[in-house]
C-alpha cells in the first residue's frame, strides 16, 4: 500500500513522540511492504509563532489531501493564563476538527496487566476494563452560536444537534459494538436537555437495525459515577461533544495507563490519530516523554486502513517493551529507564 | 429557637429516612431547648399521583413560608423509561429550585475513617479528602431556552449566565473558602465557552476582595481527572449547573461514604437540605435504607441557623453509631445490621 500521511508534530513533546511513531511505522511499512510518504505540517503554538495562526490553510491543504493524519500534541504555557486571547492553540484544534469533518472521536480505555497498580482505583475495580467512548466532535455547544449581550453582562452558548449528526455518530457506535461485545450505552441528560432527548429518540429508532446490540441509556451524571465504581461494566459508549470531553478524560485516568492511551478522530473522508496526553511542556527536549501512546495511535491508523496484522505487530512490540522493562522513566518504578528515542528504537527494532 | 420546617419526604425510601431525621432533630431540639414545627408537603411521584404535578402550589406555599426545607428523595421507576414524558418528578425538582431561588447547591465530599475501604480508590488517594462543591443551581443550560426546529430534526438548548448570577455563587464560594483552608478552585471550560469566560473574568475580578483566598482556575475535563487521581488536593470548588451536576456525582462515589453524604441548596431567603442519594425504589418499605445522609442533612440545617453545637451533636452521634456498628446493612460488612428506624432510634437516643 502507498500511504500519504500528514504529520502534525505540534508543540512541547509532540515532535519527540511523533519521531518515534514515524520510526515504528517505517519499520512496519518495510516489514509488510508498504510505502509511507510523510508530509510534515505546522500546527498549534508552533504554527502561531511561525505564521500567526494555529491551523494554517497550508496545513489544512496537506491534511485534506493525505490518507490520514498523525498528530502529536498542542498547547504551550504562554497561552494558559488567558483563555480569551484572540489566537490560541486550541482554536486550531477546533478548526481542524471542523474543516476535516472529524465527527467521531474514538477513545479506548484499556489496561495493561503490568500497569494495573498505577491506577488510582483498586485492582478489583479496574481489572478487565476495556471500553471505548465515541465522542461526537464537530457539533453541540462547542460549535453553536456564542457571545455576549447586555453590554457584556450576559453570556450565552448555544448547544445544537441535528438528527443527522446524531445518526452518523450512533451508526459508528452500533458498528463498533457489533465487533465487540454488542453492548452500547448512550450517555445523555434526557431528563433535562432537549438535545439529549433528540439523541435518545434517534438512537432508540436505530435499535431495530442492529437487533443483536443491547442498548442502554444512562444519564451523564450516573455514568460519571459508574466509571469510577465499575469501569469494567462498560463496553462501547456514545455521547455528545461536551459530555464526551469530560467523561473521556475521567475514563483515561482510571486505567493506570493514561500515558499509553491512543485515540482516533474519524471523518467521512479522513481520520486523525493522536495520543490523548498533552504537550507536557516541562519535558520538552529532555528525551524523557513516553512515546507509546503515539506509537499505539499509529497502530490504530494501520488498523483503520484495514491493515490488522500491521497494527498487531505494533501492539505486540509495545507489550514486549513493557514486559522487558524497555520503558521511559514514568513507567520505570525506580528501575532502569530509557530515553524517548531509545524506546522508539527498541520498538522499531522489535517489529 | 422556634423553627418551622417544611418536610418533603418524597418517593421511595424518602419517607423512611426523613422519619429518622425528624426523630433525631426532635431529640436535638429538646436537648437544646428549641421548638420545631414540621410541615409535611407532597412532592415528586407521590405528588404526581395525588394531584397531578410534582411540585404543587400548595407545597410551594408551605416551603416559601418555612424557615427551611428538609427533603428526602424523589423519583419512581415508572417514569424512568420516557425522559420526555410531559410530567416527571425531576421537573418538580427544577421548578422547586427555581421558585425557591435555591441558587447554590452545597455538596461536601468527606471521608469517614471507618469507611475508607469502601472507596473504589486506593486508600492513599482518598485519605484526608474533604472538599466542597458549590454548584450553581438555577441557571445555565438547565433553564435556558430549549426546543426544536426544522420539523423536529434540530434540537437546541441555550446556556445563559449573567454576571450577577456568577457573582452571587462565587461570593458564597469565597466566603466558604475563608472558613476553610482558603483555597478556591473555579471550574470552567473557558477555552471553549463564552459563559465560562464570563465565569472566569467575574471570579478574577472578585479576587481582590478576598486577598487571603488562593484562587485557581481549572478546566472541567482536567477536574474530572484530578478528582479521581488526587481528590484530597481540592478544598472549595465553584462551578456552573451542568458541570456541577456531573462533577458532584463523580466526587460522591470516590469517598466510599456516598450513602452518608448530605447536601444543602441555598437561596437568598431559604435553604433546603437533602441527602445526595436517590429514592432507591427497590428498598422502599423494607426498613433497610441508611438514614445517615438525611440525618447529616439535618445537621447542616441546624448549622445553617447558626446552631453549631446542635449540628455537632448530630455528627458525633453518627460517628458513634459508625464506631459502635449501629448501622444499616449497607455498612455492616456481613456483621450485625440494624433497620432504618432502629438506627434512627439509636441516633436520637445518643444525642
Ligand atoms: C483543548 C480543548 C479545546 C479540547 C476539547 O475540549 O475538545 C481538549 O480538551 C480535548 O478533549 O481534545
Ligand atoms: C434529576 C436531575 C434533574 C438532577 C439534576 O440534574 O440537577 C439531579 O441529577 C441532581 O443532580 O439533583
UniProtKB/TrEMBL annotation, chains A, B:
Catalyzed reaction equations: (2R,3S)-3-isopropylmalate + NAD(+) = 4-methyl-2-oxopentanoate + CO2 + NADH
Pfam family, one: Iso_dh
Enzyme class, first EC level, given as a word: oxidoreductase
Cofactor note: Binds 1 Mg(2+) or Mn(2+) ion per subunit.
GO MF terms held by the record: 3-isopropylmalate dehydrogenase activity
Enzyme nomenclature, EC number: 1.1.1.85
Positions marked as site (Important for catalysis): 142, 189
Swiss-Prot/TrEMBL keywords: Amino-acid biosynthesis, Branched-chain amino acid biosynthesis, Cytoplasm, Leucine biosynthesis, Magnesium, Manganese, Metal-binding, NAD, Oxidoreductase
Record's subcellular location: Cytoplasm
SMART domains, per the entry: Iso_dh
Function noted in UniProt: Catalyzes the oxidation of 3-carboxy-2-hydroxy-4-methylpentanoate (3-isopropylmalate) to 3-carboxy-4-methyl-2-oxopentanoate. The product decarboxylates to 4-methyl-2 oxopentanoate.
Subunit structure: Homodimer.
HAMAP family: LeuB_type1
Protein name (record): 3-isopropylmalate dehydrogenase
Originating gene: leuB
Amino acid at each position: 500500500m502507498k500511504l500519504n500521511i500528514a504529520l502534525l508534530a505540534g508543540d512541547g513533546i509532540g515532535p519527540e513522540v511523533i519521531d518515534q511513531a514515524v520510526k515504528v511505522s517505517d519499520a512496519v511499512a518495510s516489514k509488510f511492504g508498504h510505502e509511507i510518504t510523510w508530509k510534515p505540517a505546522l500546527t498549534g503554538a508552533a504554527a502561531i509563532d511561525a505564521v500567526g495562526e494555529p491551523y494554517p490553510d497550508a496545513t489544512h491543504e496537506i491534511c485534506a489531501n493525505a490518507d490520514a493524519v498523525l498528530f502529536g500534541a498542542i498547547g504551550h504555557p504562554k497561552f494558559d493564563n488567558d483563555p480569551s486571547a484572540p489566537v490560541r492553540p486550541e482554536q486550531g484544534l477546533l478548526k481542524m476538527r471542523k474543516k476535516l469533518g472529524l465527527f467521531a472521536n474514538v477513545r479506548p480505555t484499556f489496561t495493561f496487566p503490568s500497569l494495573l497498580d498505577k491506577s488510582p482505583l483498586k485492582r478489583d475495580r479496574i481489572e478487565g476494563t476495556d471500553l471505548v467512548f465515541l465522542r461526537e466532535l464537530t457539533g453541540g455547544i462547542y460549535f453553536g452560536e456564542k457571545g455576549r449581550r447586555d453590554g457584556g453582562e450576559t453570556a450565552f452558548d448555544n448547544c445544537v444537534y441535528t438528527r443527522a449528526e446524531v445518526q452518523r455518530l450512533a451508526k459508528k457506535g452500533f458498528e463498533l459494538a457489533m465487533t465487540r461485545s454488542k453492548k452500547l450505552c448512550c450517555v445523555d441528560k434526557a431528563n433535562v436537555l432537549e438535545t439529549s432527548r433528540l439523541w435518545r429518540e434517534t438512537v432508540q429508532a436505530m435499535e431495530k437495525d442492529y437487533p443483536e446490540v443491547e442498548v442502554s441509556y444512562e444519564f451523564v451524571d450516573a455514568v460519571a459515577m459508574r466509571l469510577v465504581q465499575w469501569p469494567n461494566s462498560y463496553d462501547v459508549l456514545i455521547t455528545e461533544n461536551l459530555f464526551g470531553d469530560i467523561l473521556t478524560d475521567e475514563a483515561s485516568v482510571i486505567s493506570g495507563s493514561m500515558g499509553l492511551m491512543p485515540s482516533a478522530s474519524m471523518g467521512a473522508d479522513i481520520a486523525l490519530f493522536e495520543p490523548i496526553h498533552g504537550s507536557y511542556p516541562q519535558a520538552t527536549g529532555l528525551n524523557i516523554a513516553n512515546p507509546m501512546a503515539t506509537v499505539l495511535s499509529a497502530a490504530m491508523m494501520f488498523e483503520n486502513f484495514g491493515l490488522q496484522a500491521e497494527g498487531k505487530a505494533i501492539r505486540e512490540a509495545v507489550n514486549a517493551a513493557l514486559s522487558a522493562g524497555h520503558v521511559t522513566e514514568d513507567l520505570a518504578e525506580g528501575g532502569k529507564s530509557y530515553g524517548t528515542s531509545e524506546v522508539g528504537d527498541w520498538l522499531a527494532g522489535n517489529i
